[in-house]
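> Could you send the CheR-type methyltransferase domain-containing protein prediction when you get a chance?

Sure thing. Input:
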Amino acid sequence: MGRAEPLAFRRGAKPVVHARSAGAMTLEAIEQLLKDTMGLDAASIGRSAVARATQERMSASGLSDHQVYWAQLNASAHELQELIEAVVVPETWFFRDKEVYRALASVVRDGHLQNAIQCDTLRLLSLPCSTGEEPYSIAMTLLECGFPLDRFVIDAVDISTRSLALARSAVYGANSFRSGDLGFRQTHFEQVGTFWHLHDRIRQAVRFQLGNVLGSDFFPGEAIYHVIFCRNLLIYFDRATQEACIKVLLRLLKPEGYLFIGPAESGVLLSHRFISAKIANAFVFRPPSSMPAAKAPVAVSKSMDDLVRQRAAPAATRPSIPSRHAPATRPTIERQPAVSMPPDSRDAITRLADQGHLDEASKACEAHIQAHGLSAWTCHLMGLIRQAAGNARDAIPYFRKALYLDPNHYEAMTHLALLLEKQGDATGAQAMQRRLKRLTRQPGR
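Output:
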């Protein structure tokens, strides 16, 4: 989820609370403090989640009075950071959504970006970087594309000091490896007991730091990065905070650069005139000032039927990485055939959704259902379309149908848990979280 800096790095005025009911009013003030500090819209995760985190910190501090805790929170930057740590729950793994890394391999090797970096160091940003799986996956992808370590720089930023400590240690358990294809783990990690230690070669390729994308001193300068990963951050912000964040991303991204976002965030980027890179299933955009490339990079995933089968696992199958003893070869990026497709084909529907044409995607998806019947894939996509359009209540039934058709559909389960929490259904959200935990503990996940 969204990260930001602790209060120690911000010097703005704190919200003032006038005494009314101790519990409810203090929780509202805490929600506002978190929004002012880290941009978090409490409604995006459910106000009950903020209440639970607050209660957790009150218990840890030996306090039972909300107003006393509020006073401590305002007086102590350390306590505010502890509350942020309690609110932020990292959920990530290596090569999460393999299509994203296939797309990264494509954009750094093909088209105008390759020309731009011939005489320049490739610069990338992972924000928020959580416990490090994403930026390390980026580093592994670049190495497999043939980039030497001295040709790229990866900055990784997060608000959570605990997450950053775990990222820097580069020691991971089974939960960070959630697919059947673990060739990269054999190549880039060493097993020590039940944990896996990342090789120093990869670990040293990433520069971690504490930071807040909304802070006035966040990465001063312009046009720094060729590629920015900012996936599933905007969904935790309200519209005004999204605007502020996008301005920062636009400032940091080079005119020829690429911005990778989450599947429910396409509409936000398109409303700010970002241009879809038209890479299926990856949600990649270019800044408004960019000119169309003479030859747009295209990364093609396997058939959508394959992707549906992969949904039974928490993460999509990852790119195969050769053994350290095998000859170094660049991964093959298959290209989409330049043929027209029926308007209800899965690739066409996915492309419409990727580009933010939500109404057209919805109609095409409904036509696909009429022609071929319900599937976990179509139900999940309809849920994403409804969620991206801001219709959370309409999205929930589709995610439920996806889980009925595929009880192990990890993405549908994750989105449903988040939406139920946001709608105030704490019981339903907790049930989904328990299912997620059971799923990730299954052998091979």
